[in-house]
TrEMBL record:
It comes from the Bacteria. This is tRNA-guanine(15) transglycosylase-like domain-containing protein.
Length: 374
C-alpha cells in the first residue's frame, strides 16, 4: 500500500453518460444565497469549458433562474451539508432539513429534475482518519448504481497526511465510482508541498477524480487527469470549512481577495492598498477593471466583492483557454512553465517593491508545481 500503483480509470467512457458533459471543465463555485452574485458571474461562467456549482439551499431556485435566462453550461448543486455536521458510519449523508427525512436517492433525483447536469451526494464532513464513514459514503453511493451522480467527499486536510493518506488511496481504489474531493481547513489546504504532492498523486492514481471548492490546485489536477474541477469565486469557496470551527473565525466582512495573474495567486485588497500606498500600482485591463489600479479593492461592499470575482474569472478563463489549446500530452509541461513564470513574477515584484515581504518567497505549492517533473 506504500508504493505507487497502476492508475485506475473509473471516469465513464460512454459518450451519452451525463458525466461526460463535465470533461475538462473548470466550474465556478459560489454561494446560491444571492441572485446578484449569480447574475454577475453567470456571463463569464457560461462558456464552452465553464459552468457553475451553486452552494447552499437556494441552489435549485438559482438554477431555474439561470436556465430561464438562457444559461447553457453545466450547473451542479452542492447543498453544503458538510458545513453543518460531521459524518458518522451509520449516517454519512444529510437526509433532508431535519424535520422530514428524504432518502438519498430521492435527493439525487430532485437535483436532476431541477436541471442539474449531474447530482452531488449531500455528504457530511469526513474528519481525518474516519475510515468507517469514508467507506460508508463510497459504498452507499456505489450501491445506487447511477451514471448521473458524483460522490462528494468533503475531507479534513489531515487525510493528506500519514497515516490517513494511505487509507484514502486504498479506499478510492477499492470502490471505483465517479468521485469529487473537497478539503476542509481554516486556511489554504494546499499551502504545503506535501499536500500539493499527495493531491497530485491521488489524481494520477485515480484518473477522472474531481476537485470541488478549490483554487489553482484545480489546474494542476486537470493536467494530471482529473475529470473536472470547480474553483471558488471567493476565498470562502476556495476550500471547505471544518464544521466545528468557531464561527468568528469563518465570518466577518473584509476587503475581497484580488487575483494577480502575473503571480497566479490572490492577495487581499487591504494588503494591496498598503503595499502600493504612494506608488504606481499595477493596472488591470480586464473588462471589469478597465485599466484601473489593482489596489482599488479596499471597500466592504458586495458590489466590490463581485467585481473582484469577475476580474478573477476573466483571467482564469484566459488560462483555461490556453489549457485547452495545448494538446493533452503536453499540458503537464505547459502548466509547469506557467507556474515557473509565476515564480519569476514573485521575484520581479519583490525586487520592485523592496519595502514589503508580501511577494517573497513564492507560495510553496506554486514552487512545487513549477519545479516538479512532468
Amino acid at each position: 500500500m506504500g508504493g505507487r500503483r497502476r492508475p485506475v480509470p473509473w471516469w465513464p467512457q460512454a459518450a451519452d453518460v451525463p458525466l461526460r458533459a463535465l470533461d475538462g471543465r473548470v466550474l465556478t463555485q459560489l454561494s446560491a444565497r444571492s441572485r446578484a452574485w449569480t447574475e454577475s458571474l453567470a456571463p463569464r461562467a457560461d462558456t464552452g469549458h465553464g459552468g457553475l456549482v451553486l452552494t447552499g439551499e437556494q441552489g435549485g431556485r438559482r438554477l431555474r433562474e439561470l436556465r430561464a435566462n438562457g444559461f447553457s453550461a453545466p450547473i451542479l448543486l452542492d447543498r453544503g451539508a458538510y458545513e453543518r455536521a460531521g459524518a458518522r458510519y451509520d449516517s454519512p449523508f444529510e437526509y433532508g432539513d431535519g424535520l422530514h427525512r428524504v432518502p438519498l436517492a430521492a435527493q439525487l433525483d430532485a437535483q436532476r429534475e431541477s436541471g442539474a447536469t449531474v447530482a452531488l451526494t449531500p455528504t457530511l464532513f469526513l474528519d481525518g482518519g474516519d475510515i468507517g464513514s469514508l467507506v460508508s459514503v463510497l459504498s452507499s453511493t456505489a450501491r445506487l448504481d447511477r451514471d448521473d451522480t458524483v460522490c462528494l467527499l468533503p475531507l479534513h486536510v489531515g487525510w493528506l497526511r500519514s497515516p490517513h493518506y494511505a487509507a484514502l488511496r486504498q479506499s478510492l481504489g477499492d470502490i471505483r465510482i465517479p468521485t469529487a474531493l473537497t478539503f476542509g481547513a481554516d486556511r489554504d489546504p494546499f499551502a504545503s508541498v506535501e499536500a500539493a504532492r499527495r493531491l497530485r498523486e491521488l489524481v494520477e492514481d485515480h484518473p477522472g477524480l474531481c476537485l470541488l471548492r478549490t483554487d489553482l490546485a484545480g489546474f494542476d489536477a486537470l493536467t494530471r487527469g482529473a475529470g473536472f474541477t470547480a474553483m471558488g469565486a471567493t476565498s470562502g469557496h476556495r476550500h471547505a470549512w471544518i464544521p466545528y470551527t468557531a464561527p468568528t473565525r469563518r465570518m466577518g466582512r473584509r476587503p475581497p481577495h484580488v487575483f494577480l495573474p502575473e503571480l497566479l495567486g490572490w492577495k487581499s485588497g487591504g494588503t494591496l492598498a498598503r503595499v502600493f500606498a504612494g506608488t504606481a500600482a499595477p493596472q488591470c485591463s480586464c473588462p471589469t477593471c478597465d485599466g484601473r489600479r489593482i489596489d482599488r479593492f479596499t471597500g466592504l461592499s458586495e458590489k466590490l466583492a463581485r467585481e473582484a470575482a469577475t476580474h478573477a474569472l476573466f483571467h482564469r478563463n484566459a488560462l483555461l483557454d490556453q489549457f485547452h489549446y495545448v494538446e493533452p500530452a503536453y499540458r503537464a509541461d505547459w502548466w509547469r512553465i506557467v507556474c515557473h513564470d509565476a515564480v519569476a513574477g514573485y521575484r520581479r515584484w519583490s525586487s520592485r517593491w523592496r519595502s514589503t515581504s508580501e511577494f517573497s518567497p513564492a507560495p510553496s505549492a506554486l514552487r512545487f508545481w513549477a519545479t516538479s517533473s512532468p
